[in-house]
Design a protein that fits this description.
Largest sheet: none
Shape: globular
Number of domains: 1
Structural class: mainly alpha
Helix content: over 70%
Strand content: under 5%
Length: 388
């Protein structure tokens, strides 16, 4: 598990370098807020298409080879990003990066292969922690590399450094990553669509995927517009936003890497999900009180608790309900639905931001999470009755 998490971490450093500077890079080409949010969405649009494909290919040909292929493609996308000379080129490079980013389903299936069901929420939390630590190191590097007064040309170096991290992850995976033993024994023949559909649609999986969709829809509105929101409300630029992502990364790494596993074992997944949903809804609805760095830190803490408790718990629930031979397919389908949330959320958030004001995308997101709170409460009551 450590090698997989290390490989994901190295790759996410590169992704983290780009994330906070992306809106400012687009602004250098005179992009509007709606165009910026569409630039975020194109990444997720390609994930919708590619996540099930990568997951299915990893079921058939193995996790390692698909991870290496996608990591290589991600490095190429970062190089293209750095060489982009127009907004159109940014969109194309971002699309390629999103297609390769569908490999998260493969990483999740890899973890499902090597962990017992009762340990899966903790394992998914540690995967989330690897993401979080990557977001600590990546934005920190991006903030240092971009300088205090960036122009369009200033963004090339961070993109090239991001590509270097992706290629380093390829080398690391090639040398150290091993194919899960269980996957070597997986199906070898062709599988009908009906069998694959049964694997994805059975055992309550669609309902849990739906909850994950709502969480993703709400949280993406925040993440897509965080740089612009910080600029509008707090007067921050690319460097300050980069260090805000560092703070977020530290929180997510700690919460997912340290707390999620023990809390899930002690309290049960439904209760952890309930706590996360309450924290996320409360945080999103509280953005109106943010006026300085202290209030920003407090509200962001609630938001990080929300995403750190909700996403790993829901991912583990999905995985536990699936059979071992189709983990890649199931996780690919789940990630495609999540990507649908990441596609639809940014443009809607951009319109709300433009026409109603910077707080409205987050306020609407907080309302979207309320059904998750209600369903998680019902699941918690049912879980308690089963325990009794």
């Amino acid at each position: 598990m450590f090698v997989l998490l290390l490989t994901v971490f190295v790759d996410l450093v590169g992704f983290g370098i780009i994330l906070p500077i992306l809106p400012f890079y687009a602004q250098a080409f005179d992009a509007s807020p709606v165009q910026i949010t569409l630039l975020v969405s194109v990444h997720s649009a390609m994930q919708i298409i590619m996540s099930p494909l990568w997951g299915r290919l990893s079921d058939r040909y193995g996790r390692k080879v698909i991870l290496l292929v996608t990591l290589t493609g991600g490095g190429i996308a970062f190089l293209w990003f750095g060489l982009a000379g127009s907004l159109t080129a940014l969109f194309l490079a971002r699309g390629l990066n999103g297609a390769m980013g569908g490999n998260i389903a493969v990483a999740q299936a890899y973890l499902a292969d090597i962990t017992a069901p009762e340990d899966r929420a903790g394992a998914m939390g540690r995967l989330g922690a690897a993401f979080g630590i990557g977001f600590v190191a990546g934005p920190m590097l991006g903030g240092l590399l971009i300088g205090t007064h960036p122009s369009a040309d200033s963004f090339a170096l961070p993109c090239f450094i991001a590509a270097a991290f992706s290629f380093a992850a390829v080398i690391l995976g090639l040398i150290m990553l091993e194919e899960p033993v269980r996957q070597k024994l997986a199906e070898r023949g062709r599988t009908s669509f009906a069998v694959l559909w049964a694997a994805v649609s059975g055992n309550g999986i669609p309902a849990v995927i739906g909850l994950n969709f709502l969480v993703t829809l709400a949280f993406t509105a925040l993440m897509a517009l965080l740089p612009l929101w910080c600029q509008a409300r707090l007067g921050w630029g690319a460097r300050e936003v980069s260090f805000a992502y560092v703070y977020i990364g530290f929180l997510v790494a700690f919460l997912q890497g340290v707390l999620v596993g023990p809390m899930t074992k002690k309290m049960g997944p439904p209760r952890v999900l309930l706590l996360g949903a309450i924290a996320m809804s409360s945080g999103l609805l509280s953005v109106i009180v943010v006026t300085d760095i202290v209030s920003f830190a407090i509200v962001t803490l609630a938001l990080c608790i929300g995403t750190s408790f909700c996403h790993p718990t829901l991912t583990a629930m999905i995985s536990e309900r699936g059979d071992g031979d189709h983990q890649g397919t199931i996780m690919g389908a789940a990630n495609s639905v999540s990507a649908l949330g990441r596609i639809t959320s940014p443009p809607m958030a951009g319109l709300l931001f433009t026409h109603w004001g910077p707080n409205w995308p987050m306020l609407v997101g907080g309302l979207i999470i309320l059904p998750v709170v209600a369903i998680a409460a019902w699941m918690s009551i049912t879980y308690q009755r089963q325990q009794d």
